[in-house]
Amino acid sequence: MPAPVDHEARRADVAEAVWRVLARTGFDGLSLRAVATELGATTGLVTHYFPHREVLVRHALDLLHERSDARLAPLAAGLSGLEALRARLVGLVSDDDETMVLSRIWVSFWGPALADPDLRDREAVRYVRWRSVLGPLVVEALDRGELAPADPQAVVDVLTSCTHGLVVQVLVDPAAFPLARREAALDLVLASLAP
């Protein structure tokens, strides 16, 4: 009689293998075979949990959301207004290993998302989530007079463009964009929005 299998533990093992493949190759290298190789298992075992690549990609995106949220959520804890907003933004462009891996994976997802309407819709939802995180911080800073009167959505759009532009530049040329330079750029943008 075969030993009982802890399916939740096995699924968690597969999920970690998915994460390691993403961290190393981005979405371009994510395949059932790559996950099986990473896991040291057969493709059949992986397809037991993820029957085809689309299910695997959706799961990878869920993992990415979970890890991004866990990384960014506590950054503004105990802070308010402009200080909380700045902490969130700096967290997005920081240079710790986990943030760099998350950034590499997100940027690698943009190509497939542009080519696939379903993935593009998922990326649009991610931006809605991001705006819903920044929006209240911007409104609070506006209400406190820490930012000049402006349309909160426009402020969020400017900050999103700035941070994501910095993320791409750091990934392409990390030596040219040390953390101090990134923070200086963010501070300049925030100062330009000040009353």
Question: What labels describe this entry?
Answer:
195 residues; mainly alpha; Arc Repressor Mutant, subunit A; Tetracycline Repressor, domain 2; 9 helices
Could you explain how this protein is built, in words?
75% of the residues lie in helices and 0% in strands. It folds into 2 domains: 1-51, Homeodomain-like (Arc Repressor Mutant, subunit A); 60-192, Tetracycline Repressor, domain 2, CATH 1.10.357.10. α1 (7-25) crosses α4 (53-72). The protein is mostly helical. The mean pLDDT is 88.
Write the layout of secondary structure elements.
Layout: H1 7-25, H2 32-39, H3 43-49, H4 53-72, H5 81-92, H6 97-115, H7 117-143, H8 152-172, H9 179-192
Summarize the structure.
The protein has 195 residues and is mostly helical.
